[in-house]
Specification:
By secondary structure, this protein is of the alpha+beta class. The protein is built from five helices and seven strands, in the order H-H-E-E-E-H-E-H-E-E-E-H. Strand 5 and strand 6 form a beta hairpin. The chain binds zinc ion (4 copies).
Length: 166
């Protein structure tokens, strides 16, 4: 199993936490500092690089600005961190969320969550989240079933989904 596989597995398990992510960031900032081109950091995370095909960012060099990554507004769904400098490019979201919940500028983008709310699909009272393309609110379990499986990207109640999935 490659490093990236392990990272992605940890990310979607419940024991994933920021400590693991910090160790990964440290690992990459120590091993790759010589091989990357130098960038002038303005303090918005320009010093970070991305591992292609992943949502993993690592620092390319020591940065006097002490940059940190910011949490995606939909962190509860995507578990992604990204450098602030990218926020404007993707509607303030991580790249994955901008494609999933704000494609071509459509959709709500940042999705609101509600504690102790009754899921409108399974009726369980738990943490719920609104969907990007309709006003139905689902628990995380129903949300993931409805949107995380390929070819299965519609609200289970009204069947409205991303314009990209039509
Ligand atoms: Zn920096
Ligand atoms: Zn995200
Ligand atoms: Zn539910
Ligand atoms: Zn709906």
């Amino acid at each position: 199993m490659s490093f990236v596989d392990i990272f992605n597995q940890l990310k979607y398990e419940n024991d994933y936490n920021e400590y693991i992510l910090d160790s990964i960031k440290d690992f990459f900032s120590n091993t790759s500092s010589n091989s990357n081109k130098r960038v002038k950091c303005q303090g918005d995370g320009e010093c970070y690089n991305n591992i292609p095909g992943t949502s993993i960012f690592y620092r390319t060099k020591y940065c006097k600005n002490n940059c940190t990554l910011i949490k995606c507004p939909n962190f509860i769904l995507c578990k992604n961190y990204f450098p602030k400098v990218l926020a404007d490019n993707y509607y303030g979201l991580c790249y994955n969320c901008s494609i999933a919940y704000k494609p071509c500028g459509e959709g709500k983008g940042k999705l609101e969550t509600f504690e102790f709310y009754q899921c409108e699909n399974c009726k369980e009272k738990t943490t719920c989240i609104e969907q990007a393309f309709c006003d139905h609110t689902l628990c995380l379990k129903c949300f993931k079933l409805a949107h995380f499986k390929p070819g299965n990207d519609k609200c289970p109640i009204c069947k409205i989904g991303s314009p990209l999935s039509k």
